[in-house]
Specification:
about 375 residues, alpha+beta, six-stranded antiparallel β-sheet, three-stranded antiparallel β-sheet, 11 helices, about 40% helix
């Protein structure tokens, strides 16, 4: 990916792992996960108590320009969550929040010879991350876990967390950045994406009117995750229960639309994020209801009426925001999101544009679901399936 050094090999990762307080010799490293940004490895270590596994990550310096501020945020968040779990005497709390492993010198991260920033966590055994939620039960658990996460952080002490990516979910800025990319057109791609740019502008205008009518302009500022994709929750591999929220890099001040919207676009879509057959892309109503039920079961008592009214627009907002980001990155030469085929970011943009338009057409139905669940108190009953 542009903006980052060449991807490290597992052998290099095993060498870096020795810089952390692992109480043993790293034996093996293998790539882990499907994230777009960081390089992630599972490290198996021979410790006095037996073999253990850890997660080792090299941060993408081109995305996170201030890794020290990012890691300071991470220390605050993980410490806060661990303390709450300890006070509640949760029996398996080591599986309910990420645990950082410090560098041997005591820092929360390590810089390698090239200056790249690495960090290490305990690997939560017996857990699984999924890229989609094909059953209502999985959607419910994913949403419930994210809802519980914002509730747990509602009393995080001042000052606010650092804004590691300024204006991360500032949609007008994202749209302006797309227009700038189209004007600059560094790779001669703008002319070929005129239809997609026009579709983004039209949906943005329609969404702006809907958000204004819902009173969504002044939602309360909360500490939110800001990247609530399905695979950022670990589920228990046996029971399917939501255990732990991961990928905490973007935890910072924001509003609930960013979180619930990303849940909807990733877990209530009828097709993958990069689907080429656009006829397959739409809103899964059953999945949406499971997400809304799970999220409100955990966070419903925290949310204000204005937030509840705006929730049905969170999905189209985040789908459109990501469409704009993917399209701008395509025009700029794929500098941010990792691609796995030619025009991959354009495929992503087209799918997300289709999803946003379809969800806007379904707003009356999603409004009815959210308002009904809110009136019922979103009883925490897991849906069948």
């Amino acid at each position: 990916m542009q903006g980052a050094p060449a991807a490290p090999t597992p052998t290099a990762a095993r060498s870096v792992a020795r810089a952390f307080s692992l109480e043993g010799e790293p034996l093996h490293a293998e790539r882990l996960g499907s994230g777009h940004i960081h390089d992630t490895f599972a490290i198996r270590v021979a410790t006095p108590g037996g073999a253990r596994r850890f997660v080792l990550q090299r941060l993408h310096g081109g995305v996170f320009a201030d890794p020290e501020a990012l890691m300071a945020n991470l220390v605050r968040v993980t410490s806060h969550l661990a303390a709450k779990l300890a006070r509640a005497e949760v029996p398996d709390r080591e599986r309910r929040a990420l645990t950082l492993v410090s560098e041997r010198g005591g820092r929360a991260f390590h810089r390698d010879a090239e200056g790249a920033c690495w960090r290490c966590f305990d690997l939560i055994e017996g857990s699984v991350a999924i890229d989609s939620a094909p059953t209502p039960a999985q959607a419910f658990e994913t949403a419930r876990t994210f809802g519980a996460f914002i509730v747990a952080l509602a009393d995080l002490a001042e000052p606010p967390l650092a804004e590691v990516i300024p204006h991360f979910h500032d949609f007008p800025r994202r749209l302006a950045a797309l227009e700038a990319a189209l004007r600059e057109d560094p790779h001669g791609r703008a002319r070929a994406v005129g239809a997609e740019a026009d579709a983004a502008r039209a949906s943005a205008e329609r969404l702006s009117l809907a958000l204004g009518a819902a009173g969504a302009r002044e939602l309360p500022l909360r500490t939110v995750h800001n990247d609530c994709k399905v695979n950022n929750v670990l589920l228990d591999a046996r029971s399917g229960e939501g255990l732990c929220v991961i990928d905490l890099d973007t935890v910072m001040p924001g509003n609930v639309l960013a979180d619930f919207g990303d849940l909807v676009r990733t877990a209530a879509s009828t097709a993958p994020e990069d689907e080429r057959d656009l006829e397959r892309v739409g809103l899964d109503r059953v999945g949406f209801e499971a997400l809304a039920r799970g999220y409100l079961a955990a966070a419903g008592s925290l949310l204000r009426p204005s937030e509840l009214r705006a929730l049905p627009l969170a999905g189209p907002l985040l789908a459109l925001e990501n469409a704009v980001r993917f399209l701008a990155d395509h025009v700029q030469g794929d500098r941010y999101f990792r691609i796995h085929r030619p025009a991959h970011n354009l495929d992503r943009a087209r799918a997300q544009l289709r999803l946003a338009r379809h969800m806007l057409e379904e707003t009356s139905e999603t409004e009815a679901v959210v308002l009904t669940l809110a009136r019922e108190g979103a009883r925490g009953v897991e849906p069948a399936g």
